[in-house]
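Our collaborator T.R. sent over the components below with a one-line note: 'Predict the complex.' Nothing else. No constraints on interfaces, no templates requested, no preferences about which chain binds where. So this is a plain run: every listed entity goes in together, and whatever single assembly comes back becomes the starting point for the next discussion.
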Amino acid sequence: MSTETITWRDRAATVGEKVQNQLAFVLSDRMALVGVLVMVSFVFLGVFGPMLAPHDPIEDDIRDDEGDLLRLEGPSSVAPLGTTVYGKDILSQFLAGARPTLIVGLFGGLGTGVLGFLVGLVSGYYGGWVDEVLMRLTDLTFSLPFMPMALLLLTFVTPSIWLITVIIAGFLWKMPARVVRAEVLTLRERTFVKSARASGAGHLRTMFFHVAPNVLPIGFLYTAYGVAWAIAAAASLAFLGFGDPTTTSWGRMLRMVFDSGNIRVAWWWVFPPAIGIAAVTTSVFLIGRAYEEIINPEIQTEQ
Amino acid sequence: MSDFQRFLAKRIGIAIGLTLIAVTIIFVVLRMLPGSPFESLITAGNLTQGQVDEIMALYGLDKPIWQQYLIYLRNILTFQFGYSILQSQPVWDILAPKLANTLILLVPALVTTAVVSTLLGMYVGWNRGSKAETASIIGTTFLRSTPVFITAIFFVIIFSYTLDLVPAFGMRSITATPDGLLDTYMSMDFLHHYILPFTVTVLFYSGDFLLLARNGVVEKKGSEFLKLHRAKGLSENEQLMRAGRNSMLPVITYFALRLGMIFQGLILLEVVFAWPGIGRALVLAIQQQDYPLVQASVFIMALAVIIMNLVADVLYAYFDPTVSVSGGGA
Amino acid sequence: MSLLEIDDLHVTYSTGDGSVHAINGVSFDIDEGVNYGLAGESGSGKSTAAEAVLGLLPENGTVESGSVTFKGQDLLALSERERRDVLWEDIAYIPQSAMDALDPVMTTGAQIRQAIQTHRNVTKSKARDRVQELFDMVGLDPDRIDDYPHEFSGGMRQRVTIAMALALDPDLIIADEPTTGLDVIVQDKIIDKIIEIQDRIDSSLLLITHEVGVIAETCDELSILYGGKVMEQGSVDNVLVNPTNPYTMGLKNSFPEIDNVDEDPVSIPGSPPDLSEPPTGCAFRDRCPFADEECYESHPDLVDLPNRNHRSACHYVDNAAQMRRDAGDPRTWGIETDTASDGDHERGEVILETDGLEKWYTQSQSLLDRIRGDEPNHVRAVDGVSLSVRKSEVLGIAGESGCGKSTLGETVALLEEPTGGSITFDDTDIEEYQDGNMKAFREKAQIIFQDPFDSLNPRQTVRRLVGEPLAIHDRDRDTRARRVRETLERVGLTPAEKFLDQYPHELSGGQRQRVAIARALVLEPDFLVCDEPASMLDVSLKVNLLNLLRRLADEEDIGIIYISHDLASLTQVSDRLAIMYLGRIIEQGDTEAIVESPKHPYTESLLRAAPEKDPSVSRDRVLLEGEPPNPVDLPSGCAFAPRCPKAQDECYREEPGLDAAGGPNQSAACYFPVGEDPVADDGPATDDAGTGSTPQESD
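Returned assembly:
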């Protein structure tokens, strides 16, 4: 497509402007701004957290000056966020635990968004039996209860972080798929889509050049929501004891404190992972809501 | 055959098909994956020969896999879930009270949150841009996006451990030995245990209803028909009610969908609060490898989802006067 | 004392980028029992004025100054609660789009009852009786008061809103574009209904519309608004017969008239004023051919013309007679006229021909019916249409909504698969194109759609939009850049550079439609289908578009099918006309022949239904009974027979062929064509307005 270069360059010029426009809402919405700040810190933690951790979260024992193991100690100079019942450093666990959370969230969300977007797009655009088959498939994932099925699967297959990501995306793609499909169904009837076909555009061109760009914002939105859902789902699974046993994640930390029965005393053990998860998922939704307000013309009023 | 009957027949057909597929998936996971749990259960040697024989016969484990499948289908679709391996009791006897415990927590909570949050959502949607709107959106966004077990833990720490207002665990005091339904569910002791999980459930599900109602009202607020209502001299409240009535459809269908998903949604809550419901029973059964129990609870949960999906579809068609159900025109 | 006095009203809207000064000092009075018209193009502030009176301005709209006095009471000073008591009890409202104005989840009867019971303390059954009475009054079946809005057609829903407005015998009814979006025959019936009801009750009416003709027929006085200013006001007979303001002249001249085939309507070039600042000079100065420096300095006052109920805001009122003469000439407005374009130009060879073309939709069937092998029901959207279009010819296709004209357009453009009959394009059967040669067809045949706001992909720039057909048909880059530029300028988007990088939302309605046309023309097609391309545009823009299409046919030898419900614009642009009713062509022939002597009774009623903009000319109404039937179970025989005022037994027995009547340049499918039938004279076809209305009335 060398002949497209001019238009591509034009696009590149306008893309910058578009991205700016799309992100402008963040600045105008204080909730979204806070959300973005939280997300930026979270990504930073996810990437660099394990390197910043002062101790190995699992191997290293924390001892006091006398060499005694510090079990279930509150925050101190040795362990700024205290220690676990096994004498491990909670700060290090928290820092290291950000990465698995980020991985599940990022890839679970992306998988959910991309898979759901494509299914919704194809299903809505082609209609007929393609739609019938794909929609029955989403009906099926809707009727299989996520939690019990995931628990069942993870009982027999050793959980790993990637497997959990796949299972989560495999259950969550139905959400964007339905919404995108509904949107495509109305877009398909819009005159400009007919007009594209009238000028000789094939199905692929019409679908990807004319229909897809107009549902892309919804795709983005549900990818974002997918990130939050995936993080929440992975944390829930880990809390029930179905997480990846080889890594420290925030959900697994909560399981440890809950299982050991120390929830009553060890607030320093509960709060870092609990607040971490709550902050991240809430932030994603706050950003998503602000974004939804600008892409949903029906909610938007003339102001 | 009217359009509505035709529609109903189609949806029921789909629901039956989905049930069969769901049941089949449970079978595949429990029997055919490598290291089938039943095999390992028998080879592990924890059971007496008598128990082993009983299990073999009940599930037809000595027969070819397709016959096992047929036996399994017959059993599960007639609700004959067999015996719990560990508790030597019929599965149904174990699950029935747990199912009741779950429902008594969930149904009232869901109804409460649906009514209260919808009304609140309508109100803040009407007063768009107000402080109440911003606050309710931040609040409910936090509540619905945070995994429910984290909210539950926060609440336990605050209200049970710090303020010592309500008990943290269980459905009744250890000393309580209620007999009869009335005594079980209508005592102060029960209520005392009930408040915390009930509140968390109400709050967790509030966000979706609030946003649905709010978006609906915001969307309707600029509509032509509301302008005509306004011109007719309807009061502000009457206008809001009309806007609300016009946004009710998604709320009603969402309510039905949520009702179907409550069992699974509350697994985590039941674990945190040690609430003796079906979700906690499932987690315990998986940990204890009590597969008949696992099989039955997963099946019940899937069936609830399928049935409530069906109900949601039918409600939608029924409550929307613009969807023709009379069988007349196209 | 007048019933309603509006004095120096100013209304602004606050928007994201500043404010819009929608009304800038409007004053007018409505006396009791008077029908008052408010005319203007979109953006003139006419609806805003109504909303200000009703207190229904959107949240971002503010009345800056001025007063609205109703029966001596200042409406703007009322509290919310006091205003609610005035609304409907004293001032009722007929909203613009009846399609969306009724609450979809409430029965129509309940909505009217709600209006009654909000203001009067009556029992439910009393209120119901009143609703039935009202239904009867507006010509609706009183037994249908428990039906939901979606069970009514557009015209019937408008009747419901009229019934609602009449519920409490208000002193003033404000009707905001009550007929916009309705078919011409339905519109005519609604206007007739309004006039009839007005004769019986003594309410005043404030009618807001962009159609000068509707006001000419229904109102006693009017104001013409432009840019939030009153340009001219007074009695309808004075203002519309002898306009003294250049804008009124332009507005009046830009309405095409059906019976004036030879005279092109004159458009007003340019676009409505930018109202982000309150206008300093005359609001119309930029588009006015007579404007000079004085017009830029100050807005002219509304001055009384001597001895008449007539006021005009123009610095050059004294020159009115001269201006009137000049305004009739397109050259005055800077529009070049090609004298060659009209009348007998050469028509080229046939480019497209259909023979018995059918497009039937199958209704969905239950599994049981399918197993039983029952014949499925068909919606016969296009049912045996034979027509031909030559190069450099415009074939107009007219009909009401639902008659299948749009489906016909999409079927000949092969966007819909025909289910029967044949299409020959450029001497080749379309099946040959469909055998893997569609690209060749798409290159030569193009279609332009109705809605300029929807026909362009919102996420593409004009450059990409217009260039896309070229990319699809493998033109190289240089050709593309050049052709895009050329085509944009050809459709009047000059300079092209200004538009290339704009997105559709940055363009005005008229500009968008031009981009859509450019997209269709960029491949230099031989054949063009235009599906109501002008229906969403303001009058002045509409005329521009029609002139452009006419020029394309004349100068570039394109064969055009122009589909519209608007006979007036069709007669302006078409060489030949085809009238469609329920999927069939019932009359076809040279435009002039059909306009001068329609043969089919349906054609006649269509032609007669258009309102007359000159109040001094009276018009015979032909009011048809009922509405077109459902195209699923069509009656046998002539499809029009059940509504036809002169149908005989024969009409029900067998369907007349298109050759049943007519002459050398005209043919009609009717056994008893207009003008050739002795019975015709005492049929109800020529009754005076008011008495020949719908027969459901029982009083």
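Summary for T.R.: Chain C touches chain A at residues 13, 15-16, 58-60, 410, 413, 415, 438-439, 442-443, 446-447, 449-451, 454-459, 461, 463-464, 467-469, 471-473, 476-477, 480-481, 501, 516, 519-520, 523 (CB under 8 Å).
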